[in-house]
Amino acid sequence: MKKVLTIVAAAFVVMAFTLKDNDYKNPNLPVDERVRLLLKQMTLEEKIAQFYTPSAEMELGDGKSFTVGWA
Q: Which domain, by its residues, includes 11?
């Protein structure tokens, strides 16, 4: 029984760390918190690569659009 409880406890610890890595996808968190969590996970190379990503125009549901990236 003790061995089973140890395995279950270890599984919960692993799950807790795994869920933390994807918190930036949680729509219930404020945007600034989600951005902070995502930037915390990104490597320096990934952050630098964002500067070289070409722009893309995104359509919004109300017929408006906005440009992301190089403008």
A: 2-68
Indicate whether 7 pLDDT > 90: no
- Nearest one of 67, 42, 9 to 34, comparing CA atoms: 42
Look at the chain and report how many structural domains it folds into.
Answer: 1
Residue 23 is given by DSSP the state G
H helices within the chain, ranges in order?
2-21, 31-41, 44-51
Cα–Cα distance, 6 to 33 (Å, whole number): 33
Q: Are 69 and 54 in contact (CB under 8 A)?
A: yes
Tens-place pLDDT, residues 33-66? 999 999 999 999 999 998 887 766 666 677 676 6
